[in-house]
Specification:
The structure is a single chain. This protein has a three-stranded antiparallel sheet with strand order 3-4-5. The chain has a three-stranded antiparallel sheet with strand order 6-7-8, with no helix packed on it. The protein is built from eight helices and eight strands, in the order ββααββααβααααβββ. It folds into three domains: about 1-20 and about 135-215, no CATH class; about 40-125, no CATH class; about 220-269, no CATH class. By secondary structure, it is an alpha+beta fold.
Length: about 270
């Protein structure tokens, strides 16, 4: 929870779903740290990640990220790769994204192998609430970071930065080009932005900005959604499947005088 001069703000599940496009519904992401020996850890990497390891590649139940990245660079996927090799490579990429972006713990050099428990079956993994886990991780790391003796933090910090740019307008880089402003800050990479006019690693500047925020400086998004199901039928009349079509209309209220609306469609088989 962020306490501002005129009220309070916080990152929500909707923000996670919109900014990271992570599912916020489904089975909860669970797991626990186990004390596997080298033999068990080596077998996990061989069976699910597709590469062999040495005892020096581990620190407790965590694997060196450099070992995995070097393997991927030295053994790129090609047209001759088997389906099993492609699946294991996809699991490697997912593991890195989970360990260092979605559920980052602040340890840059190593990643815990317990995350593999939620990636063994990639099909069922996509049905889990990764967004809920990311939000819980962010709250936990922010709670730890509030202590005066803490100097590093984990969690999805890139999400927090984009959320701050989206919601607290004075913190966002100034857009220099004239592209469609309805796109908001989710598409920052598509714009030419000013790096010089944006405070970076300047705590005093950010504190001053936060202390002097007005209600008009904060973007408020009101979202209205609806959906319906459509049956897919073959020529013989038999049902071949269903499609869920969701419609979302978002209103970005920057001030009383200006408001921007955006509509979108999403399809789920």
């Amino acid at each position: 929870m962020f306490h501002l001069p005129f009220g309070e703000m916080t990152v929500t599940l909707e923000d996670i779903n919109v900014l990271y496009e992570l599912p916020v519904e489904g089975e909860a992401l669970t797991g626990f740290e186990s004390s596997n020996g080298y033999t068990e850890r080596r077998k996990l990497c061989q069976d699910y990640l597709g590469f062999d390891t040495q005892p020096s590649d581990y620190k407790n139940n965590m694997i060196k990220m450099s070992t995995m990245i070097n393997f991927m660079l030295q053994n790129p996927i090609s047209s001759q790769s088997t389906e099993e090799e492609c699946i294991k490579r996809a699991r490697c990429v997912s593991f890195i994204l989970c360990a260092k972006t979605v559920l980052a713990d602040g340890n840059i050099a190593h990643a815990s192998l317990h995350l593999l428990d939620n990636l063994k079956d990639l099909k069922s993994s996509g049905q889990k609430s990764w967004g809920g886990a990311a939000l819980a991780c962010l709250y936990r790391e922010l709670s730890k970071g509030a202590k005066p003796d803490v100097v590093t933090m984990g969690g999805p910090m890139s999400l927090l930065q984009i959320w701050a740019w989206t919601r607290i307008l004075p913190l966002a880089p100034r857009i220099l080009d004239e592209k469609n402003q309805l796109e908001g800050t989710i598409w920052w990479a598509e714009h030419e932005v000013s790096q010089l006019e944006t405070p970076t690693h300047v705590i005093k500047a950010h504190r001053t900005t936060s202390q002097n925020l007005r209600e008009a400086d904060v973007g408020i998004r009101l979202t209205v959604g609806s959906g319906f199901n459509v049956e897919l039928k073959r020529m013989d009349g038999k049902v071949d499947g269903n499609v869920r079509i969701n419609t979302v209309t978002a209103m970005d209220k920057v001030s009383e005088e200006s408001a921007l609306a955006k509509s979108g469609l999403s399809f789920h088989l």
